[in-house]
Design goal:
Blueprint lengths: L1 H24 L1 H20 L3 H31 L5 H46 L1
Helix pairs in contact: 1-2, 2-3, 2-4, 3-4
The structure holds adenosine-5'-triphosphate.
């Protein structure tokens, strides 16, 4: 039983090492991190509903998952094919496409959920400033 929990703890530790590797080495991950913080701050500011948050968390997780899998793919491709190879290129390009699709669709979903309330909030603020 103790061994079971110990090995689960080790797995968790490995997952965090992988997570830190992505944060440390992938420039795209820095963009995702900034986008994640900005989206969460704006979401709190707009007081999004529970369901809106559920969708936002889902699409944020989708982008991060795509980035993590793409990084894993890049590393395995580099390991298997250190020299240039057309198949290695296709493998990496397809991985990059997955991140692109996740990021683009998340942006659209973010705009659909937060676009209208964000503009309404700005208009509200603007009307308060004009009265003063
Ligand atoms: N071994 C290879 N053989 C052929 N083409 C490759 C190889 N490695 C990389 N490429 C090409 O170079 C591109 C960039 O690959 P690289 O490994 O530098 O990814 P990256 O710059 O880290 O990607 P990202 O910007 O998504 O993090 C790939 O999408 C692919 O088109």
């Amino acid at each position: 039983m103790i061994k079971f929990f110990y090995t689960r703890l080790l797995s968790l530790r490995n997952a965090f090492i992988g997570w830190w590797y992505v944060i440390r080495t992938q420039k795209n991950a820095w963009i995702h991190a900034v986008a994640t913080v900005v989206v969460c701050l704006v979401g709190f500011w707009l007081k999004l509903s529970m369901w809106d948050w559920a969708v936002i968390v889902l699409v944020i997780a989708m982008v991060w998952t795509a980035e993590f899998l793409n990084t894993a793919l890049e590393i395995v491709v580099d390991l298997a094919s250190p020299d240039l190879h057309p198949l290695a290129r296709v493998g990496k390009d397809v991985g990059a496409a997955a991140v692109l699709i996740a990021a683009a669709s998340s942006t659209i979903i973010g705009i659909l959920i937060m676009g209208k309330p964000f503009i309404e909030r700005l208009q509200h603020l603007w009307s308060i400033l004009r009265i003063k």
